[in-house]
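Researcher: Sequence of histidine kinase follows. Predict its structure.
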Amino acid sequence: MALGLDEILDSSGFVPHGVCLLWRPDILALHVASDMLIGLSYFSIPVALVYFVMRRRDVDFGWMALLFALFIIACGSTHFLMVWTLWNPDYVLEGLVKAVTAFASLGTAAALWWLMPRLLTLPSPKQLEATNRALEQEIAIRRQMEMRYSSFFNNLAESLFIVQVLPDGEFAFEAINPALARSTGLDPEGLRDRRVTDALGPEVAESIIPRYTACRDGGESIDYEETLLLPIGLRVFHTMLVPVKDAAGRVVQILGSSRDVTERKRLQAEVLQTSKLATLGTLAAGMAHEMSQPLNVIRLWTENMLSRLRDNLLEPQRAERSLTLVIEQTDRMAKLIDHVRSFGRRDGGGMQAFTPAHCVQNAVDLVRHQYALEDIEIIESATSAQMPVTGRPLELEQVILNLFSNARDAIIALRATGGEAGHIMVAVSDESDGQNVAIQVTDDGGGIDPSVLPQIFDPFFTTKEVGKGSGLGLSIGYGIIDGMGGRIDARNVDLEGGRHGVRFTITLPSQPVSSSDRELSHA
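Model: Prediction complete. Tokens:
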């Protein structure tokens, strides 16, 4: 038969626990005092645990502390009920509280043993102390390294800068070193943490931002030359950019180094100009002959018209024909003079897209008649080259003229020893890969000694007699082709009829190439 709650809690049939103690005041006092102190202590411990967990939310296993607090509160409650049952026989209530305590104890014990392996892995105070000492040492080392790198960054003669890639894809200056500040006239503090578009003028920003974008998007190092209008004036820099990636592979910084090459570029321009004038000097005789031909034609036809005019025999049709011929010959001379003037002036223009075949044709037109006087024939192969390249047309024309001049000298030198020679073959073609244009200049002048062939592009190296060559022509040509992202090489070849010669091959890319690809092509 089921019992009601009132019947279960009914304590009328029990006697208080004090009866067992014979109501002795001294024993009652001892039990009351002990249980009250234990209960109060038990109740204070959970308060401390809850306070600790609330203040230190970073502590692991905080829920375990709360479970201990519940268990301890239950234990404290049993001690308060033990005082209560000294005078009130509510033993059923006391049993229920003990049951709650038992379940709380069981759960706490189970959780504690479950956590035991993880608790045992917690470092001891000695381990924590050793770890702290190691961290302090590492921090000290890192600070020393930071100071060392900071000193390196600030004292290096090379111009250095750090660009931060912002979350929106824009760029901001993080720092520039004093060397860059001196070479550009920029204020390091004025650039720090400022966007590139805000820190520099629109013209300079538009020039450098595409480079930063290419480095960020490509994720590879790039190097290039740039001309910038800065507070100290117009300067030319050779700049290298290196991307810095985070753990996810995203470019977050760009490290840059710049070298002011303004003076070097000026000296190179002087050397190029000197080489141009030297080339024109060697072509002077041929150009004089080229000019004398149309002048002789003009003189003959004008003298003929003047004679007929004096004899009243000049017919309108003949006069028109003569004047038309005079105009054609003057146009021929004007084009030759204009081309010589264009070739001889300083090339201050920038890089541009052009067709190499035009440069080759211009070079051939300049020397064809002069070389013909020396019984040297320039043979042009039919060309279908249409791809453009990027560079300076007059500089490429200078390289071709220098190769023609070397071929002429080799042919004349071979003839002096009794050999037969007199042909220069030139060809321009688009390579099958669709990415490069090849220019080949071949002569039958006997070739180059294989032992010195690897040195012919070195500055001041020449195979000619003393006083007949500076040794700079091929070196300058190598620099021009390299500046266009191309390469030039030479090899001896066997030709028809048992003749021998050398073939120079210039390979130019139809698209700009990266620095790594350029280094690979040279290798």
